[in-house]
Amino acid sequence: MLIKHRTSIIALAAVLAACSANPGPAPVEQAKPSKAVATTKTETPDEPPRLSVGIDPIYAGLNPHLLADDSEFVRTLAQLVLPSTFVDGQMNKDLLESAKPVTPADDVALTIRYDIDPEAQWSDGTPITVSDFEYLRNGIANTPGTLDAVRYRAISDIRSANGGRTVFVDFSQPIANWQTMFLALLPSHVLKDEAGFDKALREDIPASGWRFSLHSVDRSRGVITLHRNDRFWGAKPAQVETLQFVEVRSLPQAAEMLRSGQLSFVDMTPTEVASETLELIPETQVRTTVLDRRLQVTATTKLDTAQRASLASMIDPATLARLATGRSAALEVEQALEPKEPQPEALQALGRPLVIGVDPSDPTALAATRALVDVLRNADIPANIETSDATDLFENALPNGELDALITWTPAKNRDQYHCDGEVVAANLSTMCVPEVEAMIERMIQGNATAEELAAAVAELEATQHLNTVIVRDVRLQALGRGIVGPNPSLERWPAGLTSLAEWTINKGQ
């Protein structure tokens, strides 16, 4: 019995020894290396760095073709994410194989043929085709509050061949600078089912066709994140893996983030002491630029000529500019050749309150409107503010004759601001149609008149009709901190705006 028991013990020991020599999988032990690897990954210095740019808060959508959405940031985002037929006046050889006029049909004034590169695609793999040209044309031509509608309305037809990769655009009249059309194409395959062109890109850009793709828009944190577009087929992909735009809501925040290196670049609206503050930060360069975008008061045709002249006489651009922006420094205000003498009589005799429209989401425009209403009321002119989002103002309040005037930012060129829009108001917010000016616009579009000639005709019109009064132009303060390698060591020699951003690289030594 004892021998048998000892034998069992020896056999058991042998089994245990064998198990120790060839241990099986140990789930608990495998979990430890997994945790260690994860920790190492988050701390590794080899993780791709990101480039961070400080910007103004975003109050509207991201559609670069809408008057309501236009801003320096939206323009920059479009240049980074959306494909254009021409870039800086040169054909985009990544998007197109060719773009040229061809012999038009008898009833067509001009036909442009675009041959799209076979590899051109959106970030979800969908090819860029004629559908994207059609979507952009129809949206701009038929939507209130769009930019460049006058030329897109001259398109009579868009045809295609080669499975949509060859596009023929027919025009009902000659177009001199057709190379500046079809910029920032939109992904029609994901936007065509939206409620409307004015709703497109309200919150994000769902597909990219250029060097970066929009990864996320965090409105609550004020952070917009772009990633390098892995499906970009061109010769020069983005130079950085991740690009972040961070809203800076105050000068102290911008200055501290530059000092700490959390931001490498800032593009913001200046404040009273912003330039001086940022220039004091070591290794920081500062410059100021002025854009074609401007805040202006537009009087509509609901007022007659005398009433519009009365309103214009009550506007002191320098005063409104200071009150609207909250600063007296870095203001770009157009000075009148002769000071205007206030002439309130025509508006005092209006017999009802003057109604001025404004989008309340824009604090500068809203402040200007409130200041102007105070000026009018102090002159015994009753005035009310109609607040609504810009889209509603352009689509409903303006064409329905509910507004006497409105205050908004606009980058619109003279050809758009004075073009006879008809039932769909694009950028002519006054809604006035003057046949002589319209004829000049048509001649300029065709290449038979210059922009200077049109500007002279517009100045003459404004002198008698008092439609648009510019309050202030959009001034940008840009600060270059540490960590960026740009087009030139001197910020002053960089291209205007943020047009070169796709070519910036990160200075790993900083």
Relevant terms:
Dipeptide-binding Protein, domain 3, disordered N terminus, single chain, Dipeptide-binding Protein, domain 1, D-Maltodextrin-Binding Protein, domain 2, 10-stranded mixed β-sheet, 510 residues, alpha+beta, 3 domains, globular, 16 helices
Report on the structure:
The protein has 510 residues and is α+β, with helices and mostly antiparallel strands. The protein folds into 3 domains: 48-82 and 210-284 and 481-509, 3-Layer(aba) Sandwich (D-Maltodextrin-Binding Protein, domain 2), CATH 3.40.190; 83-135 and 149-187, Dipeptide-binding Protein, Domain 1 (Dipeptide-binding Protein, domain 1, Alpha-Beta Complex); 291-474, Dipeptide-binding Protein, Domain 3 (Dipeptide-binding Protein, domain 3, Roll). Helix content is 32%, strand content 21%. It has 16 helices and 18 strands. The protein has a 10-stranded mixed β-sheet, with helices on both faces. The chain has a 4-stranded antiparallel β-sheet with strand order 4-5-7-6, covered by helices on one side. Strand 2 (86-87) and strand 3 form a beta hairpin. The radius of gyration is 30 Å and the shape is globular.
Terminal CA distance reads 81 Å
Strand arrangement, largest sheet? 8-9-10-1-11-16-12-15-13-14
User: How many domains in all?
Assistant: 3
Chain-averaged pLDDT = 89
Low-confidence stretches: 1-45
Give the CATH H-level superfamily of the largest domain: Dipeptide-binding Protein, Domain 3
CATH topology of the largest domain: Dipeptide-binding Protein, domain 3
Strand content: 15-25%
Number of helices: 16
Helix content: 25-40%
Please name the CATH architecture of the largest domain: Roll
- Please state the CA-atom Rg, rounded to the nearest Å: 30 Å
Write down the overall geometry.
globular
- Specify the CATH class of the largest domain: Alpha Beta
The number of E-state strands comes to 18
Structural class: alpha+beta
Largest sheet: 10 strands, mixed
GO molecular function: peptide transmembrane transporter activity
Protein name: Putative monoacyl phosphatidylinositol tetramannoside-binding protein LpqW
GO biological process, one term: peptide transport
